[in-house]
Amino acid sequence: MSSTKIDEPHVGAHPADEQPAGFKPVVRTRDLSISFGPHLAADDRRVLSGVSIDLPRGGILGVVGASGSGKSSLGRVLSGRAMLREKEVDWPWISGGNAEVAGIDLRKPTRDDQRRLTLDVGYLAPESGDRLRNDLTVAENIAEPVLSRDRDFDRRALGRAAALLIDAVDLELGTLNRFPFELSRGQRQRVAFAQALIIEPRVLIVDEPTQGVDIFAQPAIMSLLERLNRVRQMSVIVISNELATVERLTQDMLVCHRGFVIAQGNIEEVLCDATDPYLVRMREARDYARTPLPGTLTKDTDAAVDRVVRGLFPDPEADAEEARLEAEKAERAKLIESRPEFDRFNKEK
Ligand SMILES: Nc1ncnc2c1ncn2[C@@H]1O[C@H](COP(=O)(O)OP(=O)(O)OP(=O)(O)O)[C@@H](O)[C@H]1O
């Protein structure tokens, strides 16, 4: 464990014993351990230990580490999906410490908590694209998280939201009527990303968000994450074995190595003071990590991302008010264009 950074509190994702009174993290863990196998202390297989996180609303935490270090297991647990499927042997479980996400204690969830979890916490796993239902169209798959809770949800609003999302993840609108098995792996993963966002989650846990996604579509995914975080205050935990992916979104990271958290804090500070060989290697790989995204966001996709960020299920009254203000602004601009003295008069006032 790096002696350099682990004890220093840091705004963002650090243990917040020193945070101001009233600080309420959206994700809070204390000395969390995660295991696979039977729920018997002697027999379980611990894959990650000592995770203490405080992620505030609107914060982003990057979880990095080599393959097999326990990152995905952490994501599965924090997403709450592990808890919902704890009878399944290939899902990890909490074998020590505490974890609270969106106000839900993951160790003792009530039935209502379980329902709320899948409404407040979005989750995208590297294999999510392959888990889409092949008997449903893409549009139906995207809508599924909403309809599985509320069969009576307004289908038109849902169809519109699915179209906004498919546009924002840079897929053709015609994709909505196709089936997952007709798509490429990268396309399916983008559909799964859209599906994770349909609930407009308060917290999103994304494991390798750009894995398998072609370089031209990657900026769309990253823009959605960045803007939903900045504009909608969506808290994000981004898991990746590439520091570059994390660094595009945040300066706060937690490093897992061989089942332990070996460092935590500001990327720059952690790497600058690193003595641990793994962190030193990470620092050396930094230049590569800083290369810009290879693709660029097209104007159309940029506008599509913008529409998603404005909200998937708009409030007609707020929309009308916004349209009225826009019209007023346009009218004023037209007036100023024809009579520049009005502008001068406004400024003098
Ligand atoms: N179903 C399972 N049963 C038992 N052990 C598992 C299971 N899934 C994963 N593990 C073990 O848990 C450890 C952590 O795996 P995890 O997938 O969390 O690592 P990771 O850091 O996300 O790796 P990668 O970047 O390759 O996805 C590994 O040693 C792995 O072998």
TrEMBL record:
<dbReference type="InterPro" id="IPR027417">
    <property type="entry name" value="P-loop_NTPase"/>
</dbReference>
<keyword id="KW-0813">Transport</keyword>
<protein>
    <submittedName>
        <fullName>ABC transporter ATP-binding protein</fullName>
    </submittedName>
</protein>
<feature type="region of interest" description="Disordered">
    <location>
        <begin position="1"/>
        <end position="23"/>
    </location>
</feature>
<dbReference type="Pfam" id="PF00005">
    <property type="entry name" value="ABC_tran"/>
</dbReference>
<keyword id="KW-0067">ATP-binding</keyword>
<dbReference type="InterPro" id="IPR003593">
    <property type="entry name" value="AAA+_ATPase"/>
</dbReference>
<feature type="compositionally biased region" description="Basic and acidic residues">
    <location>
        <begin position="1"/>
        <end position="17"/>
    </location>
</feature>
<dbReference type="GO" id="GO:0005524">
    <property type="term" value="F:ATP binding"/>
</dbReference>
<feature type="domain" description="ABC transporter">
    <location>
        <begin position="27"/>
        <end position="283"/>
    </location>
</feature>
<comment type="similarity">
    <text>Belongs to the ABC transporter superfamily.</text>
</comment>
<dbReference type="InterPro" id="IPR003439">
    <property type="entry name" value="ABC_transporter-like_ATP-bd"/>
</dbReference>
<keyword id="KW-0547">Nucleotide-binding</keyword>
<dbReference type="InterPro" id="IPR050319">
    <property type="entry name" value="ABC_transp_ATP-bind"/>
</dbReference>
